[in-house]
Protein backbone atom coordinates (compact mmCIF):
# COMPACT_ATOMS: atom_id res chain seq x y z
CA UNK A 1 0.00 0.00 0.00
CA UNK A 2 1.19 3.49 -0.68
CA UNK A 3 2.34 5.80 2.09
CA UNK A 4 3.68 9.33 2.39
CA UNK A 5 5.81 10.49 5.29
CA UNK A 6 6.56 14.07 6.19
CA UNK A 7 8.77 13.81 9.22
CA UNK A 8 8.83 17.53 9.96
CA UNK A 9 5.67 18.42 11.83
CA UNK A 10 6.46 22.12 12.23
CA UNK A 11 9.23 24.39 10.99
CA UNK A 12 9.86 28.02 11.88
CA UNK A 13 12.21 30.22 9.92
CA UNK A 14 12.92 33.91 9.74
CA UNK A 15 11.98 35.76 6.59
CA UNK A 16 14.53 35.46 3.76
CA UNK A 17 15.90 32.16 5.03
CA UNK A 18 15.80 29.13 2.74
CA UNK A 19 13.78 26.15 3.97
CA UNK A 20 13.43 22.57 2.73
CA UNK A 21 10.37 20.44 3.41
CA UNK A 22 11.00 16.71 3.29
CA UNK A 23 8.76 14.08 1.75
CA UNK A 24 9.41 10.34 1.61
CA UNK A 25 7.01 8.00 -0.14
CA UNK A 26 6.37 4.28 -0.47
CA UNK A 27 4.75 2.58 -3.43
CA UNK A 28 4.95 -0.73 -5.28
CA UNK A 29 3.81 0.77 -8.57
CA UNK A 30 6.27 1.79 -11.24
CA UNK A 31 3.87 4.45 -12.49
CA UNK A 32 2.90 7.05 -9.97
CA UNK A 33 2.59 10.79 -9.45
CA UNK A 34 3.87 12.99 -6.66
CA UNK A 35 2.38 16.30 -5.65
CA UNK A 36 2.83 19.21 -3.33
CA UNK A 37 -0.13 21.22 -2.08
CA UNK A 38 -0.20 24.34 0.07
CA UNK A 39 -2.95 24.95 2.63
CA UNK A 40 -2.84 28.55 3.85
CA UNK A 41 -4.75 29.68 6.95
CA UNK A 42 -7.81 30.29 4.77
CA UNK A 43 -8.01 26.50 4.41
CA UNK A 44 -8.22 25.92 0.65
CA UNK A 45 -5.67 23.47 -0.72
CA UNK A 46 -3.62 24.98 -3.53
CA UNK A 47 -1.94 22.78 -6.12
CA UNK A 48 1.78 23.56 -6.46
CA UNK A 49 3.40 20.86 -8.55
CA UNK A 50 3.01 17.38 -10.02
CA UNK A 51 5.81 15.01 -10.95
CA UNK A 52 5.47 11.61 -12.62
CA UNK A 53 7.65 8.67 -11.76
CA UNK A 54 9.45 8.70 -15.09
CA UNK A 55 10.63 12.28 -14.83
CA UNK A 56 13.34 12.82 -12.26
CA UNK A 57 14.29 16.21 -13.55
CA UNK A 58 14.31 18.80 -10.80
CA UNK A 59 12.09 21.79 -11.25
CA UNK A 60 12.34 25.43 -10.30
CA UNK A 61 9.48 27.88 -10.30
CA UNK A 62 10.41 31.25 -8.95
CA UNK A 63 11.40 30.83 -5.32
CA UNK A 64 10.16 27.22 -5.28
CA UNK A 65 12.20 24.21 -6.30
CA UNK A 66 11.62 20.49 -6.09
CA UNK A 67 14.14 17.66 -5.85
CA UNK A 68 12.82 14.23 -6.89
CA UNK A 69 15.11 11.26 -6.17
CA UNK A 70 13.73 7.80 -6.90
CA UNK A 71 16.80 6.16 -5.34
CA UNK A 72 15.78 7.50 -1.93
CA UNK A 73 12.01 7.71 -2.63
CA UNK A 74 12.06 11.38 -1.79
CA UNK A 75 10.41 14.44 -3.26
CA UNK A 76 11.65 17.43 -1.30
CA UNK A 77 10.46 21.00 -1.64
CA UNK A 78 12.67 24.05 -1.10
CA UNK A 79 11.52 27.63 -0.68
CA UNK A 80 14.29 30.14 -1.28
CA UNK A 81 14.24 33.51 0.45
CA UNK A 82 11.08 32.66 2.38
CA UNK A 83 8.39 35.27 2.90
CA UNK A 84 5.69 35.65 5.55
CA UNK A 85 3.07 34.76 2.91
CA UNK A 86 4.68 31.32 2.61
CA UNK A 87 3.35 30.48 6.07
CA UNK A 88 1.01 27.54 5.57
CA UNK A 89 0.71 23.80 5.94
CA UNK A 90 2.34 21.97 3.06
CA UNK A 91 1.21 18.52 2.03
CA UNK A 92 3.04 16.01 -0.10
CA UNK A 93 0.80 13.48 -1.88
CA UNK A 94 1.14 10.32 -3.95
CA UNK A 95 -1.16 8.90 -6.59
CA UNK A 96 -0.57 5.44 -8.01
CA UNK A 97 -1.40 4.30 -11.52
CA UNK A 98 -2.21 6.20 -14.65
CA UNK A 99 -5.55 7.72 -13.86
CA UNK A 100 -5.11 9.91 -10.82
CA UNK A 101 -7.11 8.02 -8.27
CA UNK A 102 -5.86 6.58 -5.00
CA UNK A 103 -4.52 9.84 -3.68
CA UNK A 104 -2.68 9.53 -0.40
CA UNK A 105 -1.60 12.64 1.46
CA UNK A 106 1.15 12.95 4.00
CA UNK A 107 0.39 14.44 7.42
CA UNK A 108 1.68 17.86 6.41
CA UNK A 109 4.39 20.23 7.58
CA UNK A 110 3.35 23.50 9.17
CA UNK A 111 5.73 26.26 8.06
CA UNK A 112 5.84 29.52 9.95
CA UNK A 113 7.86 32.33 8.44
CA UNK A 114 8.53 35.03 10.98
CA UNK A 115 9.14 38.65 9.99
CA UNK B 1 -15.21 32.37 -10.15
CA UNK B 2 -14.63 29.12 -12.02
CA UNK B 3 -13.10 27.06 -9.22
CA UNK B 4 -14.61 24.23 -7.21
CA UNK B 5 -17.37 25.44 -4.92
CA UNK B 6 -18.87 23.79 -1.86
CA UNK B 7 -21.98 24.52 0.11
CA UNK B 8 -22.46 25.10 2.96
CA UNK B 9 -19.08 26.28 4.22
CA UNK B 10 -19.99 25.49 7.82
CA UNK B 11 -22.55 23.15 9.31
CA UNK B 12 -23.34 22.57 12.97
CA UNK B 13 -25.65 19.69 13.73
CA UNK B 14 -26.73 17.60 16.66
CA UNK B 15 -25.71 14.01 16.96
CA UNK B 16 -28.14 11.72 15.19
CA UNK B 17 -29.21 14.25 12.55
CA UNK B 18 -28.64 13.83 8.83
CA UNK B 19 -26.59 16.33 6.84
CA UNK B 20 -26.01 16.85 3.14
CA UNK B 21 -23.19 18.73 1.46
CA UNK B 22 -22.96 19.90 -2.11
CA UNK B 23 -19.96 20.22 -4.42
CA UNK B 24 -19.87 21.95 -7.79
CA UNK B 25 -16.71 21.01 -9.69
CA UNK B 26 -14.91 23.03 -12.33
CA UNK B 27 -17.29 22.85 -15.27
CA UNK B 28 -15.21 20.86 -17.74
CA UNK B 29 -13.89 18.40 -15.14
CA UNK B 30 -15.28 14.87 -15.41
CA UNK B 31 -13.75 13.54 -12.20
CA UNK B 32 -14.88 14.44 -8.73
CA UNK B 33 -13.43 13.39 -5.38
CA UNK B 34 -14.49 13.66 -1.75
CA UNK B 35 -12.02 13.79 1.11
CA UNK B 36 -12.24 14.21 4.85
CA UNK B 37 -9.67 16.20 6.80
CA UNK B 38 -9.43 16.24 10.57
CA UNK B 39 -7.41 18.75 12.54
CA UNK B 40 -3.69 18.36 12.07
CA UNK B 41 -3.99 15.66 9.44
CA UNK B 42 -3.81 15.44 5.70
CA UNK B 43 -6.94 14.83 3.65
CA UNK B 44 -8.19 11.24 3.58
CA UNK B 45 -9.79 9.89 0.43
CA UNK B 46 -13.47 8.98 0.73
CA UNK B 47 -14.81 8.39 -2.77
CA UNK B 48 -14.36 9.23 -6.43
CA UNK B 49 -16.65 9.70 -9.44
CA UNK B 50 -15.91 9.62 -13.10
CA UNK B 51 -18.85 11.38 -14.70
CA UNK B 52 -21.88 9.96 -12.86
CA UNK B 53 -20.26 6.64 -11.97
CA UNK B 54 -18.92 6.13 -8.47
CA UNK B 55 -15.78 4.13 -9.17
CA UNK B 56 -14.13 3.85 -5.81
CA UNK B 57 -15.05 4.08 -2.15
CA UNK B 58 -12.73 4.07 0.83
CA UNK B 59 -13.44 1.76 3.73
CA UNK B 60 -13.63 4.99 5.74
CA UNK B 61 -16.98 5.49 4.06
CA UNK B 62 -19.31 3.62 6.40
CA UNK B 63 -22.91 2.71 5.59
CA UNK B 64 -24.00 6.04 7.05
CA UNK B 65 -22.24 7.88 4.22
CA UNK B 66 -23.56 8.10 0.69
CA UNK B 67 -22.46 10.15 -2.27
CA UNK B 68 -24.14 10.83 -5.58
CA UNK B 69 -23.38 12.60 -8.79
CA UNK B 70 -26.60 12.04 -10.70
CA UNK B 71 -25.89 13.98 -13.89
CA UNK B 72 -22.14 13.95 -13.84
CA UNK B 73 -21.99 17.56 -12.72
CA UNK B 74 -22.50 18.51 -9.07
CA UNK B 75 -22.22 15.94 -6.30
CA UNK B 76 -23.78 15.51 -2.87
CA UNK B 77 -22.37 13.79 0.18
CA UNK B 78 -24.89 12.74 2.81
CA UNK B 79 -24.11 11.58 6.31
CA UNK B 80 -26.94 9.89 8.16
CA UNK B 81 -27.23 9.64 11.95
CA UNK B 82 -24.20 11.84 12.49
CA UNK B 83 -21.74 11.02 15.26
CA UNK B 84 -19.28 13.29 17.02
CA UNK B 85 -16.45 11.49 15.23
CA UNK B 86 -17.83 12.79 11.94
CA UNK B 87 -16.74 16.31 12.87
CA UNK B 88 -14.20 17.28 10.24
CA UNK B 89 -13.62 19.33 7.12
CA UNK B 90 -15.13 17.69 4.05
CA UNK B 91 -13.24 18.58 0.90
CA UNK B 92 -14.27 18.18 -2.69
CA UNK B 93 -11.85 18.16 -5.61
CA UNK B 94 -12.16 17.79 -9.35
CA UNK B 95 -9.87 16.96 -12.24
CA UNK B 96 -10.12 16.93 -16.00
CA UNK B 97 -10.03 14.18 -18.59
CA UNK B 98 -6.76 15.48 -20.00
CA UNK B 99 -5.05 15.86 -16.61
CA UNK B 100 -6.79 13.36 -14.31
CA UNK B 101 -3.95 13.45 -11.79
CA UNK B 102 -4.18 17.20 -11.07
CA UNK B 103 -6.89 17.72 -8.53
CA UNK B 104 -8.22 21.17 -7.71
CA UNK B 105 -9.83 21.56 -4.34
CA UNK B 106 -12.80 23.50 -3.09
CA UNK B 107 -12.84 25.49 0.17
CA UNK B 108 -14.42 22.65 2.11
CA UNK B 109 -17.42 22.25 4.39
CA UNK B 110 -16.61 22.25 8.08
CA UNK B 111 -18.95 19.95 9.99
CA UNK B 112 -19.32 20.16 13.74
CA UNK B 113 -21.44 17.51 15.44
CA UNK B 114 -22.50 18.45 18.95
Protein described:
The complex is a heterodimer of chains A (115) and B (114). Chain A has 115 residues and is mainly beta. Chain A is built from no helices and 12 strands. In chain A, strands 2, 5, 6, 10, 11 and 12 form a 6-stranded mixed beta sheet that branches. Chain A has a 4-stranded antiparallel beta sheet with strand order 3-9-8-7, with no helix packed on it. Chain A has a two-stranded antiparallel sheet with strand order 1-4. Chain A starts with a strand and ends with a strand. The model of chain A has no long low-confidence stretch (mean pLDDT 91). With 114 residues, chain B is an all-beta fold. In chain B, 0% of the residues lie in helices and 49% in strands. Chain B has strands at residues 5-7, 10-13, 19-24, 31-37, 44-50, 53-57, 65-68, 75-79, 88-95, 104-105, 109-113. Chain B starts with a strand and ends with a strand. The A-B interface holds A 4, 33, 35, 37, 42-47, 50, 52, 91, 93, 95, 99-108 and B 31, 33, 35, 40-45, 48, 55-56, 89, 91, 93, 95, 99-108.
Number of strands of chain B: 11
How much helicity do the residues of chain B have?
Answer: under 10%
Question: What is the chains' assembly state?
Answer: heterodimer
Question: Helical residue percent of chain A?
Answer: under 10%
Rg of chain B, nearest Å: 13 Å
SSE succession of chain A:
EEEEEEEEEEEE
Strand content of chain A: over 45%
Q: Supply Rg of chain A.
A: 14 Å
Estimate the strand proportion of chain B.
Answer: over 45%
From N to C, what is the helix and strand string of chain B? EEEEEEEEEEE
Poorly predicted regions of chain B? none
The low-confidence parts of chain A are: none
Distance between the termini of chain A: 41 Å
Give the helix/strand class of chain A: mainly beta
